[in-house]
Amino acid sequence: MKRRDFLLSATASGLAISFGGFSNRIKAFEKSNALSNLKAKGYGEMIPTAAKNTGEKLISLPKGFEYKVFGKTGKVMSDGQKTPADHDGMAAFYRRGEIRLVRNHEINDDVPKENVVIGKDRHYDKTAGGGTTTLIINPKTLEIERDFVSLSGTLNNCAGGPTPWGSWISCEETTYGKTAFLEEDDDEEEPQKVGGFDKPHGYCFEVSASANNNVTPIPLKAMGRFSHEAVAFDAKRGVVYLTEDAKPCGFYRFLPKRFTRLVEGGTLQMLAIKNRPNFDTTKNLTQTTFKTTWVTIDNPDPVEADTKETVVYEEGKSKGGARFKKLEGCFTDKQGRCYFISSSGGSTKGGQIWLYEPRTKDEGILRLLFEAPDRELLDMPDNICCYPNSNLLFLCEDSDYIGSGGTPDNHLRILTPEGKVADFAKNIVSGYEESEFAGSTFSPDGKVLFVNIQEPGLTLAIWGDWKRFES
After folding, report:
1. CA gap 439, 87 in Å, rounded
2. What would the pLDDT profile of 386-396 be if each residue is shown by its tens digit?
3. Is residue 413 within 8 Å of residue 351, measured between CB atoms?
4. Count of other CB atoms within 10 angstroms of residue 114
5. Which residues of the chain have pLDDT under 50?
6. Cα–Cα–Cα angle for 38, 452, 61, rounded to 5 degrees
7. Which residues contact 220 (CB under 8 A, 6 or more apart)?
8. Which positions ≥6 away from 5 have C-beta within 8 Å?
9. What is the CA radius of gyration of the chain?
10. Checking CA distances to 323, which of 14, 56, 141, 354 falls within 20 to 30 Å?
11. According to the model, what pLDDT value does residue 453 have?
């Protein structure tokens, strides 16, 4: 393993997540070529564990951790609708003594269908079956008190992010729209018909965590029309960061006219490496720290996106924007620094973790914090969250791409500041072992980790002694 194939910046002084001990880990790995030198003890060995409320063995966990399962696909909710499939991004909020989970459903139909909307009314597009559900959880019993559709008629709702003012931004990971066309499919010999929906897709939608039924869907068009993945907010500077799940793709920021009123519009920009136009971050990097600037996207809502998902990226590229690969989860710390994931970036295609640190209004520093040296250690991280008031990053794997060198298992992993990786959970749902973890989010008090297993579609609440982590 060459040094350039496994990089992590150890020079960023003052970071909330410093990763300052990585140099020693590099040397240990290069000397022995042993992945054991890069593994942390964490919370201990994982063992198959039964859910406290149903007795089902759905995940393996360290001894002493427990969980409950709820919100399964097909279960009739409080509003009379069946729980939709494909659970994905999610956030937890406190409201009037209760926990509210706002949860995405990544329904990714390629063509419009009749009778697919998940809500009773207020649909954005009656031919699209995605959206969000809201689960009201009793914080003492960790049981559902009420659940209902909160966004209906959107498409391929993958990730998103919580706002500082108590709402969830749900993002569409597609740009299919009114135009029907033939598209090449890696899994099919012949091009497949796609598109032809009643409305254009590829937008962000805001869902109030306080809403008690499905909201009126309003596409936030100024935030761009591309294959959205996640968003994160810098309340200190009034900036929204956005990731794009495509190959290639860009890393964006949105400067709203009014921070708490995203619907009023603003300016979309794409990250560029200073004095290095169109820099490729995806592999064979020989440095880990880059000076950056931003280029403005003049047309964030192109009609051409109906048939080409990279139109916005290509405008940014034409102005010197940097190239990334499959950007996924992101979050910001209290200082406004943004951590984000390239799921298949790096020389092993096992994933990269990046940090953007703003320095001035239009310039900043981009750092490569971690790159997977071997896919047995970390394989295609997706959603990401941080244990509150700590420096432990919880990473949801989406590693079911066996034909591309991936591993057959999916884990929740933990990345430490020393650049070590600990195993925390493993999906052992019978018949769905290759399904991804998604939507990891801690309750605001840090006592409970909520996470989804996308298929067969279920939500878990995990608790235990979070303070006994060992590096």
Report:
1. 8
2. 999 888 999 99
3. no
4. 7
5. 1-18, 20-28, 31
6. 45
7. 169, 203, 204, 205, 206, 262, 263
8. 346, 347, 348, 371, 373
9. 21
10. 14
11. 98
Residue 160 CA to residue 173 CA, distance in Å, equals: 10
pLDDT at residue 172 in the model: 98
427 to 41, 375, 377: CA distances (angstroms): 19, 17, 16
pLDDT for 186? 75
| CATH 2.120.10.30 at 3-468, yes or no | yes
The CA–CA distances, whole Å, from 424 to 45, 64, 65, 413, 442 equal: 8, 12, 10, 5, 14
d(CA 353, CA 358): 17
pLDDT (0 to 100) of residue 255: 98
Give residues with Cβ within 8 angstroms of 57, minimum separation 6.
48, 49, 50, 51, 428
Q: For residue range 287-311, what is the model confidence (pLDDT) as tens digits?
A: 999 999 999 999 999 999 999 999 9
Distance (Å, whole) CA 38 – CA 26: 9
Break the chain into its structural domains and give their ranges: 3-468
Please provide residue 298's backbone torsions phi and psi, each rounded to the nearest 5 degrees. -75, -30
Burial of 36 (0-12, 13-18, 19+ CB in 10 A): exposed
What is the DSSP code string of 59-78?
EEEETT-EEEEE--TT-B-T
Amino acid identity at 144 = I
Which uninterrupted H or E stretch holds 318?
Answer: helix 311-318
Strand 239-244 vs strand 167-172: parallel, antiparallel, or unpaired?
unpaired
309 in Cβ contact with 244 (< 8 Å): no
The DSSP element (H or E) to which 23 belongs, if any, is helix 22-32
Q: What is the pLDDT of residue 31?
A: 45
> CB-side exposure of 432: number of CA atoms within 13 Å?
16
- For residue 66, the model assigns a pLDDT of 98
| Residue whose tokens read 């860009």 | 250
Q: What is the C-alpha separation between 154 and 264, in angstroms, rounded?
A: 20
232-271: b or e for each residue (b if 16 or more CB lie within 10 Å)? bbbeeebbbbbbbbbbbbbbbbbbbeebeebeebbebbbb
Quote the CA–CA distance of 464 and 424 in Å, as a whole number: 12
Q: What is the mean pLDDT of the chain?
A: 92
CA distances from 346 to 369, 371, 373 (A): 12, 6, 9
SS3 letters across 111-167: CCCCCCCCCCCCECCCCCCEEEEEEEECCCCCCEEEEEEEEEEECCEEEEEECCCCE
Helix or strand run (H / E) with residue 24: helix 22-32
